[in-house]
Write a structure and sequence with these properties.
1327 residues, alpha+beta, seven-stranded antiparallel sheet, six-stranded antiparallel sheet, 56 helices, 60% helix
């Protein structure tokens, strides 16, 4: 059995959700205590963020935190200062809603690689936790690059906040304490058992692999394993794989990204290569250096130098690598130079990690293409169709509006001047000839180059094949590189044997041919032919998995040239193949030596990256950069890895490296100045989108638009991506969602800096302004909407390429905004200027649109006659062009005008004609106007009492709104039907049906406050049915409403909800839960500090028992002990009077007569002080009844007579006459039975009989006649009168079918004296 909603605030788990508000019967005890525990929430609210952090760390000193508190705030401005308390309260309300329904926020944090634990709305804190160090790495990355706040803005911002955030620079701020996150990070690393860390000091470890100790210097990074089963810490050195142990080493874990990369790095890359030597003073150098010692080259790829030789750095010199590419200044020779043999001269530390000619972006946008697509989208969102506007101004606003009078002095001359300039500039506009702008700003592609084809002859041993080989030698004998060689180098072994060389039967024949060619070239000293043939032979051997033979050929290819290498692409291919073979053969020493040389080429020439077939060398670069703590080298390595995977369409591998690039670019260390960070964010956004990470994708787009380096192309690209993503949620012709407001505003601000003379830029700014204005108008922020339109008019150039229709449409829209802003005079001036600019004697559909809007403006100003003329002129134009949809709108406007003028018949006729026109339309797009007209016609029918027609109009509007998906119109139609069945044409079942539908619509809109009210209404409707099933339904609605009130922080509504649930439980007979809910309601009401609210709630709590048939005595403590003292203290006279009356009545029913006297007397005194006769009558009557019950006959008689003296004269209603009958009958009983005065009693009975006769109440007449017959017969001895009343009684008895009348003395002196009371008392029974 459900007992009520959860009462938790910040301490409850968010994933419990709304389903946690009800529990099984076995959990009732826990829920009974829950309201009492949570009611003190305001007292527990923390005032400072520091206290929240301390609470998260309130644990044993050596233990590690389990949860990370995220502190939320609403901030403003570039300094991100805390916003005002009103916005902070809005934030708390949003958090309460998320706490109740945590599914969406859980999904967001899942994308952010965190796990939601709980939400504390009052302290604005969200608690999250992590299950692996990779999650912490990702979470920290998202925090550094600014994703956390933007992800939460998507959850916390409603439409109004999105619109306000643009101008007021409102945003969500989120912060957390880094040391807590670091503590969780360390704990997770310890759990995983192995991690990488940096030594804090120089340390010695007992070696487990050699006789000596393992020595690690401060800053050295090694792999550590925590103790297991009492053993010490174990360590593995990354430079040579040596292992050691220590009891408690001093280490600090490396950052999470480094941790992830080193853990994912292959073993043969991770271990070996020795310790990086960084003797060169600059980590990332460009410029010129000087040889410090003599060096003789070991091969043609190296450069021989002498001391003091000046060497120009080709590309980059990175200090943690052994080689770099240099050019000897004196001779121009290029080759590899050892880093440890040069000294800095004219050298500088470079912040640019890119080489000359290197692609610096991943996603290249063509501005013209993006702008064209954006313009097409903006035009769809702002459709310049000439649709007439329907006058939707509420009637009360029309009645309140003053009549505007035109004055001779213009009120807005500047606006008129700008409009005239804008309208007159069209006469000088010339059609712009399309300019052929190339979409790609790149040189035209060269013709596709392909390798020549060589015929392979049969090789005969001992035969001279020189003549047959000359074409091949001629092609290959070139020291320098050409494009044909590039095609040759890229060929696979299969392609090599099938395309370049033909005429051979198998690869063995080809290999034999190339072997002969190699030997011939060697003999003829054709070194470059020999080198390239060795390379081709090596590739063929690799294809046949003959790696040792391939290694021999590749090594020969490196050593053959004598004059040095000039074809560095060939050298790169040779190095890369050799490195792969050494790696495959586990020749670590040779691999690292060859890899170092290959790295120097990657740092020297941009094209070398494209020649790599895998990422092993790139991972080696990143590993050495991490170990040497060279941030710029790490940047370069991450870029190379990202570019490598991007080129191979391995998008999932790109993300981590681009994220790292953005993290490094946000630090104070060397900046990523040479590459736009906005392009990095845009690349991430597209990657996230491909992986269906919606929230991260939106955050990336948001960061792209906010980045200082962003351009109009990148911002518009963000808009296009997001609009395409949301095309399933919104209709193609509707406006943008408000979440796109910052993007549109940024694009508009960027377009303002462009050359407005370019037609595209001006058109873009024009449509962006219109879309933003429509968005603000849609959410009733009319000042901002008008401001955008005024800015558009003022900033338009003197000559532009916009068409006449576009300019007029913009001005018409601006006029409509002024009408909605209750400025019809300004709108009329604008429309008059537009009309004046149109050609005379030549009507157009747009002129009809302007005339219709003029009619709306004039109607708003109270000039109905001119408004009718304009409407009629618009109708004439519609008839001319057979424009039925707009004709229907103009006809409806005419009907609404008649309605405002009070001409109901004319209004009904015109509205009916408009409905008929609308119903004949086949095309879509007019449903909203049609629904609005139907609703207005329905209201008119209902006001005239034509309920059947009104209901038909409402239902038609509802069906139309449902079919067209018009939520606002559907909501309005449902509200009207609900009201119709509630008041005008009561039908409880239909009212409940439409109330349920109304609730569903409100839930779709997300209006939580209105949803609460709808739930309360449904609860009351079901409560009024009174059945057990209806009461259960009422309880469910009450609990839902109560839960939402808790989430929204609506304390007074929450208290009412607890009380209402208690009342329903009382009606269901579950009395054990009633007092629990009442107690919860009382505590919540007390927490508000509103004394009036507390007083009303205590009285309502007492009413639950007062209006019940059981446990009525439980109402007394609420009235007497709790509510009455508060009413007395606050001097609330009417509350005191009401409470005293209820206490008197309750005690009278419970026979507590003595206790009731004081409250009855107090009620009388208060009634006298207020001077209200009805209250005085009630007080006198209750005093009389009490004295009568106490057998104080004289006082009872006195107060009854006082009551009768306050009755109106003459009597107007039958109820008043009946009251007379009962009171005089009661007076007669008192005097007859208690005072024993039959004579006076007879007098009271006579008055009662006269009133009963006047009323025609025969039962009362029978009773009174019987009493009078008894008195005259037994006491006054008047036989004649006794017989008279007896005969009358017999006659009345015969009419009422009463068989016997007893007027004996014993019968009449028995217990009687039914207390007569006022007609408004429940206890008084009809005789």
């Amino acid at each position: 059995m459900s007992t009520g909603p959860r009462r938790g605030t910040g301490s409850s788990h968010s994933h419990s959700g709304r389903s946690g508000r009800g529990s099984s019967e076995g959990g009732q005890q826990q829920q009974r205590e829950q309201p009492l525990r949570s009611s003190g929430a305001p007292g527990r609210r923390l005032s400072k963020d520091v206290s929240i952090r301390k609470r998260a760390l309130s644990m044993h000193e050596d233990s590690l935190p389990a949860a990370l508190p995220l502190l939320l705030d609403m901030v403003r401005g570039p300094l991100r200062l805390p916003a005002e308390e009103e916005l902070q309260e809005v934030l708390r309300g949003k958090l309460r809603a998320l706490q109740a329904d945590s599914e969406e926020v859980t999904a967001v944090f899942t994308e952010l690689s965190a796990h939601l634990l709980s939400i504390n709305p009052e302290d604005k804190v969200i608690f999250v936790t992590f299950q692996s160090f990779e999650e912490i790495w990702k979470f920290n990355t998202y925090s550094t690059i600014g994703f956390l706040a933007h992800c939460l803005e998507k959850l916390l911002f409603d439409s109004k906040l999105w619109l306000q955030s643009v101008e007021e620079e409102t945003s969500a701020g989120i912060s957390f304490q880094q040391d807590i996150l670091d503590g969780i990070f360390k704990g997770l690393l310890m759990q995983e058992g192995s991690f990488f860390a940096s030594c804090i000091t120089n340390q010695m470890f007992d070696s487990s692999t050699s006789g000596g100790d393992l020595y690690l210097e401060q800053g050295d990074i090694a792999q550590f394993e925590p103790p297991f089963l009492g053993s010490g810490w174990s360590v593995r050195c990354l430079s040579d794989g040596a292992r050691g142990t220590a009891p408690r080493p001093s280490v600090e874990p490396v950052p999470a990204f480094h941790q992830w990369f080193l853990k994912s790095c292959p073993e043969n890359i991770l271990i070996g290569d020795g310790k990086p030597l960084c003797n060169f003073p600059l980590q990332f150098a460009r410029g010129c250096c000087v040889a410090s010692e003599e060096y003789d080259a070991d091969g043609p790829d190296e450069l021989s130098v002498a001391p003091h030789d000046r060497i120009i750095i080709v590309g980059l010199l990175v200090s943690c690598f052994q080689w770099f590419v240099g050019r000897k200044e004196s001779t121009g020779e290029v080759g590899l130079v050892r880093t440890d043999m040069v000294a800095a001269a004219d050298t500088f530390n470079s912040e640019d990690v890119f080489l000359d000619g290197e692609e610096r972006v991943f996603v290249r946008l063509q501005e013209d293409t993006v702008m064209e697509e954006a313009l097409d989208l903006l035009k769809k969102k702002h459709n310049p169709s000439h649709s007439y506007k329907l006058d939707k101004m509420p009637r009360q606003d029309q009645r309140r509006r003053m009549s505007f009078m035109k004055t001779d002095e213009p009120e807005h001359p500047e606006l008129k001047t700008h409009i005239r300039r804008l309208l007159s500039s069209r006469s000088s506009e010339k059609p712009s000839s399309p300019t052929n702008i190339p979409l790609n700003n790149v040189p035209p592609e060269s013709p596709t180059s392909s390798c020549p084809r060589f015929s392979v002859p049969n090789v005969v041993e001992g035969k001279n094949h020189t003549e047959e080989l000359m074409p091949l030698f001629t092609y290959l004998e070139n020291q320098n590189y050409n494009v044909h060689y590039g095609e040759l180098y890229r060929l696979t072994p299969d392609q090599l044997s099938s395309t370049t060389f033909v005429g051979h039967s198998d690869e063995d024949q080809l290999a034999s041919f190339l072997s002969v060619a190699r030997e011939t070239a060697r003999k003829k000293r054709l070194f470059w032919s020999q080198t390239r043939i060795c390379f081709l032979l090596g590739k063929l051997c690799v294809g046949r998995s003959k790696f040792s033979q391939a290694r021999v050929y590749f090594e020969e290819a490196v050593s053959v040239p004598r004059e040095g290498f000039a074809d560095f692409r060939l050298l790169t291919h040779i190095y890369h193949n050799l490195a792969q073979i050494y790696l495959l053969q586990k020749n670590a020493e040779r691999f690292f030596l060859m890899a170092e040389k290959l790295v120097s080429l990657l740092m020297g020439f941009a094209y070398c990256l494209d020649l790599l077939s895998d990422d092993s060398i790139l991972k080696l670069i990143l590993k050495k950069a991490i170990l040497s703590k060279n941030k710029q080298a790490e940047l370069r390595a991450c870029y190379l890895l990202a570019r490598h995977h991007w080129a191979r369409n391995e998008k999932h591998n790109v993300i981590s490296y681009i994220e790292r690039l953005l993290v490094l670019s946000s630090e104070d260390t060397p900046t990523w100045s040479s590459m736009s960070t906005s392009c990095g964010y845009l690349t991430l956004a597209s990657l996230y989108k491909e992986l269906d990470l919606e929230n991260l994708s939106i955050c990336s787009f948001r960061r792209t638009s906010l980045d200082p380096s962003t351009t109009i192309a990148t911002t518009l690209s963000c808009v296009l991506h997001l609009a395409n993503h949301q095309k399933d949620q919104i209709k193609p012709e509707t406006s943008f969602p408000c979440g796109l407001t910052p993007f549109l505003h940024k694009a508009l601000s960027l377009s303002e800096f462009q050359d407005k003379r370019r037609s595209k830029h001006h058109a873009l700014g024009h449509h962006l302004t219109l879309c933003l204005s429509e968005m603000y108008s849609r959410h009733r922020m009319l000042d901002k909407a008008i401001e955008y339109m005024h800015r558009l008019v003022e900033s338009s150039p003197s000559s532009h390429s916009l068409g006449t229709a576009q300019v007029n449409s913009a001005l018409v829209w601006m006029a409509w905004l002024h009408i909605e802003k209750c400025q019809p005079d300004v709108a009329l001036d604008v429309l008059d200027l537009v009309l004046a600019s149109m050609p005379e004697h030549c009507t157009s559909p747009q002129e009809g649109e302007v005339l219709n809007l003029c009619g709306v403006a004039l109607c708003s100003m109270g000039n109905l006659r001119r408004a009718v003329e304009n409407y009629q002129a618009a109708i004439d134009i519609c008839q001319e062009y057979e424009d039925l949809p707009n004709w229907a709108v103009a006809q409806a406007n005419l009907g609404l005008l008649c309605l405002k003028a009070g001409a109901s018949a004319a209004a009904q006729r015109n509205l009916t004609e408009a409905v008929q026109m609308f119903s004949e339309l086949d095309a879509a797009g007019h449903e909203q106007s049609f629904s609005t007209v139907l609703l207005e016609l329905g209201k008119l029918h209902v006001a005239q009492g034509q309920m059947h027609y009104g209901k038909a109009c409402y239902e038609w509007a509802l069906l139309l709104s449902i079919s067209a998906n018009l939520l606002d119109c559907e909501l309005e139609a449902t509200s009207q039907l609900r009201g119709l069945y509630s008041t005008e044409s009561p039908d409880q079942v239909q009212c409940i049906v439409y109330s349920l539908h109304h609730l569903q619509l409100l839930q779709r809109t997300g209006d939580l406050v209105q949803t609460v009210l709808a739930l309360e209404t449904l609860s009351q409707l079901h409560l009024s049915l009174g059945t057990h099933r209806a009461l259960q339904a009422a309880l469910d609605f009450t609990k839902s409403s109560l839960g939402m009130c808790i989430d929204l922080g609506m304390k007074e509504k929450e208290a009412d909800g607890w009380l209402q649930a208690g009342k329903i439980y009382h009606l269901l007979g579950q009395t054990e839960l009633v007092e629990l809910y009442i107690q919860a309601a009382q505590e919540v009401a007390l927490s508000t500090g509103n004394t009036k609210s507390v007083l009303g709630l205590l009285e309502a709590a007492g009413d639950i028992f007062f209006n019940s048939d059981q446990d009525r005595d439980k109402a007394i403590p609420f009235y007497r002990d709790r509510a009455l003292p508060i009413a007395t203290k606050t001097q609330s006279v009417r509350s005191r009077l009401r409470l005293c009356n209820k206490l008197t009545e309750l005690m009278l029913r419970l026979s507590m007569f003595e206790e009731a006297l004081d409250f009855a007397q107090t009620a009388l005194d208060l009634s006298l002080s207020l001077g209200e006769r009805l209250n005085q009558r009630v007080a006198y009557h209750r005093l009389a009844a009490l004295h009568h019950a106490l057998q104080q006959s004289e006082l009872a008689e006195h107060f009854y007579l006082k009551t009768l003296a306050l009755c109106p004269s003459p009597l107007h209603f039958d109820e008043e006459t009946l009251y007379y009958v009962r009171v005089y009958q009661t007076l007669g009983d008192i005097v007859f039975y208690d005072v024993k005065d039959p004579f006076d009693a007879a007098g009271y009975y006579h008055v009662a009989l006269a009133a009963a006769v006047d009323l025609g109440n025969k039962k009362s007449q029978l009773k009174i006649c019987t009493r009078l017959a008894t008195i005259y017969h037994n006491f006054l001895m008047d036989r004649e009168r006794s017989l008279l009343f007896y005969q009358r009684a017999r006659g009345l008895a015969a009419e009422l079918n009463v068989k016997r009348i007893n007027i004996s003395m014993g019968h009449q002196l028995g217990p009687s004296s039914q207390d007569g009371g006022p007609a408004f008392q429940d206890r008084t029974q009809a005789p």
